[in-house]
Amino acid sequence: MENNLLKNLEKLNTKYKPIVFEEEKEKNNVYYDTNVYTLNYLLTKQIRSGFPAGRIITVVGDAGSGKTALALQFATIKDWDIVVYIQTNGEDAEKSLIDKFAGVSAKLIKQPCDSYEDLKKIMEEILNYLIIHKNEKALIILDSVVGINLEENNDAGYAGGRRASIFKGILREYANKLKNLQSNLVLITQYYQNPQVTFGDNRTIGGGLSVMQFSHLILKVTASKKDSEIVKGSILGLQEHAINVNVVKSRFGTQYAEADFIFDVYKGFSRTTGMFELCRDLGLIVKKGRFYYMPCLLTHKEEEFKFRDVNENDIGFYSSQFEEKINEKNLEKILQKIEEINSNLYKEEVRKIIIERQKEMKGE
Question: Is residue 79 scored above 80 in pLDDT?
Answer without folding.
Answer: yes
